[in-house]
Amino acid sequence: MAGTEEEEDEATVEASLEELMAKKAERPNSSDEEDDEDAIAGGGREESRESLTTKVLPMQQNEFVCKGCYLVKHRSQLADRRRLLCRDCA
Description:
alpha+beta, two-stranded antiparallel ribbon, elongated
């Protein structure tokens, strides 16, 4: 009897897939979807061509890299000197 339930589930899935494919075929143009995806991603074509102006500084003497979260933090956040863990990870 378990075989009939599986067959019914497969038939339902196939019917659902066919419905989705029919709805997709009814849509006028997929280029609108691509524009929507670009807008959702937040990265427009013009924005991606802009140069980055952020200056990255090397790690300072009063900073450390936490071995738990791998963030660069100020020495005042150091909770465990031996394991080099910040207050959040200790």
